[in-house]
Amino acid sequence: xxxxxxxxxxxxxxxxxxxxxxxxxxxxxxxxxxxxxxxxxxxxxxxxxxxxxxxxxxxxxxxxxxxxxxxxxxxxxxxxxxxxxxxxxxxxxxxxxxxxxxxxxxxxxxxxxxxxxxxxxxxxxxxxxxxxxxxxxxxxxxxxxxxxxxxxxxxxxxxxxxxxxxxxxxxxxxxxxxxxxxxxxxxxxxxxxxxxxxxxxxxxxxxxxxxxxxxxxxxxxxxxxxxxxxxxxxxxxxxxxxxxxxxxxxxxxxxxxxxxxxxxxxxxxxxxxxxxxxxxxxxxxxxxxxxxxxxxxxxxxxxxxxxxxxxxxxxxxxxxxxxxxxxxx
Length: 329
Known about the structure:
The chain is 74% helix and 0% strand.
């Protein structure tokens, strides 16, 4: 419990640092979001008072930086992230709320599938080390992982969507036919549009899970307690799952938690290639439009999810590894 409390204090400090950087970095970017918005209004005459009001709405002002920082913290406590320039006059919280479910549904499910299948496959490959499975699977997956991710995505789009028309070219659903809801047609359309991006994510990350689990499993199989379990004549399945795999999977827990934390922001390339309406694509559009408020909101959500995922990883370690509970290495 003392360890968890100390880690919680560390994450609170890390959250404050993330919030501070989130405030500073967008203000170092060149350009003025208010001027960018006025440029879209085709040269309409705007008074200085109107320009000042627009800057305040977009989270900017002429006040000293520490006053702006204090107001920024007050707004965060009220979950007020400002107005989105690229979706004016929609609040940033509404924009993020519209895009997060798409990213969590696609990338979250894909990461869980990749982690589960990759860990099981890596465990099996290590248990059958020296066999044909161990000789074929790791090299093939290593070759696939060496392919740049966006090349793999573009190749799938060109072959499976453009040439063979098996899957839609992009988007989250058929916008011309369905409205967002729980109708069967909309759900089928979402699944159809999400299959190809999901396959790309799973293939792109599968090799790392397999190789990490295999290497950790091979090391664990040589430990004394595993050899003792085998000497006792315990069933192979019990030795593999209860003795070897339970300890071998510990290094993958941290990687998995980081992957879960990056679900919200780590899908930028996926959503750009497939034009998928997730938070990564919203962040990309926000950068193009100098949408400071939306950039800050997206980075804040990413920071919170990463810290929360790492905290869950520490909690999982506490329950899975008795050495952590006892304060030993």
